[in-house]
Structure formats: C-alpha cells, structure tokens
Amino acid sequence: xxxNVAQKLIASHLVDGEMTPGDEVAIKIDHTLTQDATGTxxxxxxxxxxxxxxxxxxxxQYVDHNLLQTDFxxxxxxxxxxxxxxxxxxxxxxxxxxxxxxxxxxxFGKPGKTLLGSDSHTPAAGALGxxxxxxxxxxxxxxxxxxxxxxxxxxxxxxxxxxxxxxxALDAAYPxxxxxxxxxxxxxxxxxxxxxxxxxxxxxx
Length: 205
Fold this sequence. Notes:
Layout: H1 5-13, E1 14-16, E2 26-27, E3 31-35, H2 36-48, E4 58-62, H3 73-88, E5 91-93, H4 100-108, E6 114-117, E7 131-134, H5 137-144, H6 153-158, H7 180-186
Parallel strand pairs: 3-4, 3-6, 4-5, 6-7
Antiparallel strand pairs: 1-2
C-alpha cells in the first residue's frame, strides 16, 4: 500500500522505532525556529548543555512578538538573542523583518524537510510539504543539540552537563506520566539557567 506525504517524511527521517500506529518513534529534525518570547529560554538551555554550535541543518531566531520597548526588558532580550545567535550559528531575524512562521516558509522552507518550532503556528509550513511541528522550548533546544524528536525527555535532561556543577537527580524511578518539565521545575534556584558567555542580559559581562 502506498504512503501519504506525512508517512514518507517520517520514514525518511526515522531514527528509532517502527512506523506502527500507536508506537513511539524518534525522527531527525532538519530545521528549528524560535521567536523572541520562547527563544531566550532555548538559548539559555543551549548554554546549560555547553553546546558550541547547533547541529541542525538550519536554525533561525525571529524577533517578532515582544516588540514593545517601553523599558529595558525586551531590548535586553533582543541583544541577548542576537549575541547567542552569533555564538551558536543561528540565523537572526531582526525586529520588523517579519513574523516567524511565514518568514521561515518564504526564506527557508523546503519540501521534504522536518521543522520543529517553539511557535504554535509552525505547522503552517506543512503547506510546503515539510513535516512541521510546534513544540516546547526544551524540545527545540534538544533538537538544536542534535537529538532526535521523540527521545524521552528525561533522558535528554539526564545527559545534559550539570548546571553550574550540579547534575539533575534523575536516578530515581519516575511515574510513566512524569516529563522533563516536572524535573526542571524541581531544580533549586541555585541551578537555574542564566547567561554565562553571551552578552546583553543584566548581570553578564
């Protein structure tokens, strides 16, 4: 029996698992996108992973949501994002350049590729023949670090270098419904991710 477009895209990017309905699979991610409301945490997560460069074919950061600049907060975030893009090899789309999802389709969209974005409208790129999914920031950060989408979240966090010398305590047994978000929210403030080597955020050199 023939495959539809989604099945062909999954099959061509399958890293782990069987394409059986109901079974979990892991797929390779080609493109990622973030916008300024979600990208700041993603960049901090890349720093916590001690990543040198993104491992995807293409990753882009769009500044299109928090454009109001009535105080220092949004401008500081934008400076931080621009600096982080330089550090990690991510395309930077400045304020006024366009909204993330249509701009990514226009500039970088390519049929047959996978796209993971921390913007709820990311799946619109499916109209181009991409396998495009919206996700949380940690999923996007893990994809930028070269991890396939679908690998258990707790395992991805377990393999991250320790936040400032402390590794997350993930050796205990967790219920089946526990996600990496549950563990991340339990980490003490001393382990909270903050900028270390990029500029633009208060308290950084």
